[in-house]
Specification:
Radius of gyration: 21 Å
Number of helices: 3
Structural class: alpha+beta
Shape: elongated
Helix content: 10-25%
Strand order of the largest sheet: 1-3-6-5
Largest sheet: 4 strands, antiparallel
Number of strands: 8
Protein backbone atom coordinates (compact mmCIF):
# COMPACT_ATOMS: atom_id res chain seq x y z
CA UNK A 1 0.00 0.00 0.00
CA UNK A 2 2.83 2.41 0.89
CA UNK A 3 4.55 1.71 -2.42
CA UNK A 4 1.31 2.39 -4.29
CA UNK A 5 0.94 5.77 -2.57
CA UNK A 6 4.58 6.62 -3.38
CA UNK A 7 4.14 5.65 -7.04
CA UNK A 8 0.91 7.61 -7.36
CA UNK A 9 2.53 10.64 -5.72
CA UNK A 10 5.46 10.43 -8.14
CA UNK A 11 3.08 10.21 -11.13
CA UNK A 12 1.21 13.27 -9.88
CA UNK A 13 4.41 15.29 -9.40
CA UNK A 14 5.71 14.32 -12.82
CA UNK A 15 2.38 15.22 -14.43
CA UNK A 16 2.43 18.64 -12.79
CA UNK A 17 5.87 19.32 -14.22
CA UNK A 18 4.88 18.36 -17.78
CA UNK A 19 4.31 21.91 -19.11
CA UNK A 20 6.70 23.67 -21.46
CA UNK A 21 9.22 26.11 -20.01
CA UNK A 22 7.88 29.41 -21.43
CA UNK A 23 4.15 28.71 -21.21
CA UNK A 24 1.84 30.75 -19.07
CA UNK A 25 -0.78 29.20 -16.80
CA UNK A 26 -3.59 29.49 -19.36
CA UNK A 27 -1.45 27.79 -22.03
CA UNK A 28 -0.69 24.55 -20.19
CA UNK A 29 -0.59 21.39 -22.26
CA UNK A 30 -2.79 18.70 -20.81
CA UNK A 31 -1.36 15.24 -20.47
CA UNK A 32 -3.34 12.35 -21.93
CA UNK A 33 -2.17 10.05 -19.12
CA UNK A 34 -4.46 9.63 -16.10
CA UNK A 35 -3.41 11.55 -13.00
CA UNK A 36 -3.81 10.03 -9.54
CA UNK A 37 -5.78 12.69 -7.71
CA UNK A 38 -6.25 10.51 -4.63
CA UNK A 39 -2.51 10.55 -3.84
CA UNK A 40 -2.26 14.31 -4.29
CA UNK A 41 -5.17 14.95 -1.93
CA UNK A 42 -3.76 12.62 0.72
CA UNK A 43 -0.36 14.36 0.79
CA UNK A 44 2.91 12.66 1.66
CA UNK A 45 2.65 9.51 3.71
CA UNK A 46 3.92 10.00 7.27
CA UNK A 47 4.79 6.89 9.23
CA UNK A 48 3.03 6.48 12.54
CA UNK A 49 4.97 5.68 15.68
CA UNK A 50 3.77 2.05 15.52
CA UNK A 51 4.92 1.74 11.89
CA UNK A 52 8.35 3.22 12.74
CA UNK A 53 8.70 0.80 15.65
CA UNK A 54 7.70 -2.24 13.56
CA UNK A 55 10.08 -1.21 10.79
CA UNK A 56 12.98 -0.74 13.22
CA UNK A 57 12.39 -4.04 14.98
CA UNK A 58 11.81 -6.06 11.80
CA UNK A 59 15.58 -6.51 11.43
CA UNK A 60 17.61 -8.90 13.63
CA UNK A 61 17.92 -7.24 17.03
CA UNK A 62 21.18 -6.05 18.54
CA UNK A 63 22.30 -4.18 21.66
CA UNK A 64 23.82 -0.71 21.98
CA UNK A 65 25.59 1.61 24.38
CA UNK A 66 25.18 5.38 24.26
CA UNK A 67 28.08 7.64 25.24
CA UNK A 68 25.47 9.63 27.16
CA UNK A 69 21.70 9.81 27.23
CA UNK A 70 21.51 13.43 28.44
CA UNK A 71 23.52 16.57 27.68
CA UNK A 72 23.50 20.08 29.19
CA UNK A 73 24.32 23.08 27.01
CA UNK A 74 24.31 25.33 30.08
CA UNK A 75 23.59 29.05 29.56
CA UNK A 76 23.12 30.12 25.95
CA UNK A 77 21.90 33.37 24.42
CA UNK A 78 18.44 33.45 22.89
CA UNK A 79 18.68 32.91 19.15
CA UNK A 80 21.87 30.84 19.27
CA UNK A 81 21.95 27.56 17.44
CA UNK A 82 23.76 24.77 19.24
CA UNK A 83 24.42 21.17 18.39
CA UNK A 84 25.62 18.11 20.24
CA UNK A 85 26.71 14.71 18.97
CA UNK A 86 25.87 11.55 20.89
CA UNK A 87 27.99 8.50 20.16
CA UNK A 88 26.25 5.12 19.84
CA UNK A 89 28.20 1.84 19.92
CA UNK A 90 26.87 -1.45 18.59
CA UNK A 91 27.59 -3.89 21.45
CA UNK A 92 25.59 -6.75 19.90
CA UNK A 93 26.25 -9.36 17.25
CA UNK A 94 24.01 -8.02 14.45
CA UNK A 95 24.40 -4.78 12.47
CA UNK A 96 22.71 -1.79 14.11
CA UNK A 97 20.29 0.00 11.82
CA UNK A 98 18.97 3.39 12.93
CA UNK A 99 15.78 3.82 10.93
CA UNK A 100 14.81 7.24 12.27
CA UNK A 101 15.57 9.86 14.91
CA UNK A 102 12.41 11.78 15.82
CA UNK A 103 12.87 15.05 17.78
CA UNK A 104 10.21 16.24 20.21
CA UNK A 105 9.62 19.52 18.34
CA UNK A 106 10.57 21.51 15.27
CA UNK A 107 13.27 23.46 17.11
CA UNK A 108 15.53 20.39 16.96
CA UNK A 109 16.91 18.88 13.75
CA UNK A 110 18.48 15.42 13.88
CA UNK A 111 21.28 13.95 11.80
CA UNK A 112 22.50 10.40 12.28
CA UNK A 113 24.54 7.55 10.81
CA UNK A 114 22.40 6.14 8.00
CA UNK A 115 24.56 3.11 7.12
CA UNK A 116 24.37 -0.10 9.20
CA UNK A 117 26.75 0.05 12.15
CA UNK A 118 28.65 -3.22 12.42
CA UNK A 119 29.18 -5.00 15.76
CA UNK A 120 31.84 -3.19 17.80
CA UNK A 121 31.64 -0.07 15.62
CA UNK A 122 30.37 3.41 16.51
CA UNK A 123 27.84 5.72 14.92
CA UNK A 124 26.73 9.27 15.62
CA UNK A 125 23.49 11.06 16.36
CA UNK A 126 23.65 14.86 16.20
CA UNK A 127 20.87 17.11 17.49
CA UNK A 128 20.88 20.74 16.27
CA UNK A 129 18.86 23.08 18.50
CA UNK A 130 17.55 26.55 17.59
CA UNK A 131 16.91 28.55 20.78
CA UNK A 132 15.07 31.44 19.04
CA UNK A 133 11.61 30.65 20.41
CA UNK A 134 12.55 29.98 24.03
CA UNK A 135 13.30 31.73 27.32
CA UNK A 136 14.62 30.19 30.51
CA UNK A 137 15.23 26.51 31.17
CA UNK A 138 14.26 24.08 28.38
CA UNK A 139 14.43 20.31 28.24
CA UNK A 140 14.15 18.58 24.86
CA UNK A 141 14.27 14.99 23.73
CA UNK A 142 14.56 12.84 20.61
CA UNK A 143 13.48 9.24 20.07
CA UNK A 144 15.84 6.83 18.32
CA UNK A 145 14.14 4.07 16.33
CA UNK A 146 16.54 1.19 15.75
CA UNK A 147 16.65 -2.60 15.75
CA UNK A 148 17.00 -2.92 19.54
CA UNK A 149 14.65 -4.58 22.01
CA UNK A 150 13.72 -1.43 23.93
CA UNK A 151 12.92 0.97 21.09
CA UNK A 152 12.51 3.84 20.91
CA UNK A 153 15.55 4.91 22.91
CA UNK A 154 15.39 8.48 24.22
CA UNK A 155 18.18 11.05 24.31
CA UNK A 156 17.74 14.45 25.94
CA UNK A 157 19.38 17.83 26.28
CA UNK A 158 18.74 20.93 28.34
CA UNK A 159 19.69 24.58 28.07
CA UNK A 160 19.10 27.78 30.03
CA UNK A 161 18.16 30.41 27.45
CA UNK A 162 19.33 33.91 28.41
CA UNK A 163 17.91 37.10 26.85
Amino acid sequence: MKNLVKILSLVAVLSLGACKKNQQADQLVESTEPVATEAVAAGPAVASEDEMLKSAQSKPLTTVALSEAAFEFGNIKKGEQKEHTYEITNTGTNPLIISQVKPGCGCTVPDYTKEPILPGQKGKITLKFDSSGFDGLVNKQAEIYANVEKAPMVITFSADIQP
